[in-house]
Write a structure and sequence with these properties.
There is one protein chain. The protein has five helices and ten strands, in the order ααββαααββββββββ. The radius of gyration is 46 Å and the shape is elongated. The chain is of the alpha+beta class. The chain has a domain at 171-274: Sandwich (Immunoglobulin-like). The protein has a five-stranded mixed sheet.
């Protein structure tokens, strides 16, 4: 009985399995046929439509339409600058002679960062500098990057003027070494100035009476010798003074150092130079 029942069960399972496969096969066939029909319909509709416009042509057409749009009306008295409407009072015509000329239209005679020309025979200092420039034998006389010659106290005592007539910008980097009996240099007055290009200021320090003191500008301008460096003598009270002029080409912050071979230390001055009103 058990064997009979097992056989019946296997027979029924086999019959239902075959029926299920046939059913699914029929369904798959209908689906494939439906999809094929839809594909044919879609292809036919696509063929019946006119040629599609490329995306590039669409973008170009939109740009042309934007350009072709009518420009918004500008109120009376207004002007258009860079595609933006602005009141006419905000814009000044370059032909308006009543306005102040700009630096582009009326540049300075001497560009910023350059010094005015100096005649070689203007004074003893300029003669010494131009002589050194000519033979290139003593670069310390025209460059602050070259160390100055060692100070000769004996030669200076015999002929102080010879030391003053020689320009060596780097003297400000060679003050006397601090030691007993060596007085440090001191500022005699203020060290910070604001001037307009073309104006002058007096720079003063306190040193030993009769001692030489060199003033050197690090950013153009000139002293009474028409150069960026000058050595002067301290008076009987020990006051050494140099007149600095913010000449043409000099602008913004100018750093000036003062030092001497008899006194120790340095004094730094700052001169802020503004352009004159135009």
């Amino acid at each position: 009985m058990g064997l009979f029942n097992d056989g019946v069960f296997r027979l029924r399972r086999t019959r239902w399995s075959r029926l299920s496969c046939d059913r699914y096969a029929a369904i798959d066939s209908r689906v494939l046929v439906g999809l094929s029909v839809l594909a044919l319909i879609g292809a036919g509709l696509w063929l019946m439509q006119p040629d599609a416009t490329p995306v590039r042509d669409v973008v170009v057409a939109k740009q042309e339409n934007a350009v072709a749009q009518e420009t918004p009306s500008v109120p009376e008295g207004w002007v258009t600058q860079g595609g933006v409407a602005r009141p006419g009072t905000d814009v000044v015509s370059v032909k308006d002679e009543s306005r102040e000329p700009s630096l582009i239209e009326n540049p300075p005679k001497v560009p910023h960062g350059f010094s005015p020309a100096v005649e070689p025979d203007s004074n003893a200092n300029t003669k010494a500098v131009f002589a050194a420039l000519k033979d290139r034998s003593k670069p310390s006389r025209f460059s602050s990057f070259v160390p100055s010659e060692p100070f000769d106290a004996k030669a200076y005592a015999e002929n102080p003027q010879a030391y003053l007539d020689t320009v060596e910008p780097a003297r400000v980097f060679a003050p006397a070494e601090p030691a007993e009996g060596v007085n440090p240099i001191r500022a005699a007055d203020k060290r910070y100035f604001r001037v307009v290009q073309g104006e002058s200021v007096r720079l003063s320090v306190v040193a030993d009476a009769g001692a030489p003191v060199t003033f050197t500008s690090q950013a153009l301008g000139f002293f009474d010798n028409l150069l960026t460096s000058q050595t002067v003598l301290a008076d009987d009270k020990g006051i050494a003074t140099a007149n600095f002029t913010a000449g043409e080409g000099t602008i913004d912050l100018v750093q000036i150092l003062a030092a001497g071979p008899i006194n120790s230390g340095q004094i730094a001055f700052s001169v802020n130079v503004a352009l004159p009103a135009r």
